[in-house]
Amino acid sequence: MRVCLFEDRGCQNLEPLALMRPVFDLLCGQTSLASKQLRFFAPCEVGVLIRPQLVDLYRLHHPRIPINDATWLRSAPIVLVNGRWLPPAGVAINLAGPAVAIVGDEVVYAVLGTEQLADCSSHTIDDCLETWKQTLPVRPAGGFTISHLWDLIEHNAEQIALDCRGPTIRPINNPISVVGPEGRLHVDPTARLDPMVVADTTNGPVVIDYQAVIHPFSRLEGPCYIGPHTQILGAKVRAGTSIGPGCRIGGEVEASIVHGHSNKYHDGFLGHSYVGEWVNIGAGVQTSDLRNDYGEVGVIANGERVASGSHKVGSLIGDHTKIGLGTLLNTGSNIGIFCNLLPSGSLLPKYVPSFASWWNGNLVDKSNVLELERIAGAVMRRRGWAFSDVHAALVRKLHEQTAAERRRAIVQADTRRLRRSA
Fold first, then answer.
1. Residue 47 in contact with residue 69, Cβ under 8 Å?
2. SS3 string of the chain?
3. All domains of the chain, ordered by start, with CATH?
4. What gap in Å lies between CA 116 and CA 132, rounded to an integer?
5. Per-residue pLDDT at 11 exceeds 60
6. What number of CA atoms fall less than 13 Å from residue 99's CA on the CB side?
7. Predicted pLDDT at 415
8. Could you count the other beta carbons within 10 Å of the beta carbon of residue 376?
9. How far, in Å, are 206, 223, 325 from residue 203 at the CA level?
10. How far is it between the farthest Cα atoms of the chain?
11. Which neighbouring-strand residues pair with 359?
12. Can you tell me the distance from the alpha carbon of 292 to that of 303, in angstroms, rounded to the nearest whole number?
């Protein structure tokens, strides 16, 4: 079986986390959406159709995968899989085709012959989906479509449990104290657990991955996942939390996803949030994830205010953003990539566009891209990673691509400030 993962126009609603990665690389549970999709189909060949600006960076990390390759795509029958699809568990696959499988009114995968692929490319995929939905047999797919980032947060707890496969592994002489069924504790033999650590498996599994380090006085409540090389520094990790690789986490984290290589070293609260890579959250940063009137949370997504359908949404924080100590993040905040936020004595705006600073209560354009690249390189080198020319080219492209939205947001913020001072 050949499978091609694709992005459709719905990826815009998953910004800022989708700005620097394909949507199928977003995390839910212990693994990415791509890992779940490939586990569902178990293909022998894999290719991708992604946004052009991501091609070079994706090729840097996946040199053997065909990317936007029309010749490969059209060479034989294939299953095209929507990168925003969260597949169901334990469902038999019906690959009789040609046909499309849907969740709601969205195509989540299509079984296609070469005759249906003649006009298909990363540029035409949305039009092709509409054509196939009108002309091919339609069947239900099961699972869920990820329409917004808070959908990943909503499904995270159940996905942590579903991703637990294989026998429980615990190191010999493990000092951890377990509350609840011990069979739900999964610890990689290379992980280091100090004394006075508590894992509460009453409501789900606690998974501690390769070479993770759990410091004393940490409490881990299942379902939760601690990724490779991550350090938990006396933190309270509440249920529904996934911490990706190479993170340093302190304070309190609840029902959140931290994608990887990000710091929240000190005390402070992070709840019902998705944090990207290479983010630094300073001491005492507090995230509101619940309105004080218990109402539905609204979030700015793709330039529009969207009703989340939930009364708990925290912050969506893009890659390489820095948040200064004591900053107060509003409920349902959308904070772009390469932002710099400093405290102002009150809640920050719910929307900060990419490459912007909140400085002395004002929204400011961060126009010095070379300085941003220098800082990003320094941060990544400290963890043994390289900020390559490919990374730099993507940052410059995204800075240009987001310029108009940034100018619009700054004008609106200035207008609101002048009205308040009048």
1. yes
2. CEEEEECCHHHHHHCCCCCCCCHHHCEECCEEHHHHHHHHHCCCEEEEECCHHHHHHHHHHCCCCCECCHHHHCCCCEEEEECCEECCCCCCCCCCCCEEEEECCEEEEEEECHHHHCCCCCCCHHHHHHHHHHHCCEEECCCEECCCHHHHHHHHHHHHHHCCCCCCCCCCCCCCEEECCHHHEEECCCCEECCCCEEECCCCCEEECCCCEECCCCEEECCEEECCCCEECCCEECCCEEECCCCEECCEEECCEEEECCEECCCCEEECCEEEECCEECCCCEECCECCCCCCCEEEECCEEEECCCCECCEEECCCCEECCCCEECCCEEECCCCEECCCCCCCCCEECCCEEEECCEEEECCCHHHHHHHHHHHHHHCCCCCCHHHHHHHHHHHHHCHHHHHHHHHHHHHHHHHHHC
3. 2-147 (3.90.550.10), 156-369 (2.160.10.10)
4. 8
5. yes
6. 12
7. 85
8. 18
9. 10, 7, 33
10. 68
11. 362
12. 25
Shortest CA distance to 332 belongs to which of 355, 344, 348? 348
Query: What whole-number distance in Å separates Cα of residue 338 and Cα of residue 385?
Result: 18
Q: Which residues pair with 286 in a beta bridge?
A: 269, 328
What sign for the dihedral angle of Cα 14, 20, 23, 28? negative
pLDDT value of residue 96: 85
What is the residue-averaged pLDDT of the chain?
94
Hey, CA dihedral for 396, 305, 309, 130, is it positive or negative? negative
216: tokens are 């004393």
163, 124 contact by CB (below 8 A) = no
Compute the distance between CA of residue 95 and CA of residue 218 in angstroms, rounded to an integer. 46
**Hunting for tokens 């959406």 — which residue is that?**
33
pLDDT above 90: percentage of residues in the chain: 88
The verdict on pTM exceeding 0.85 is: yes
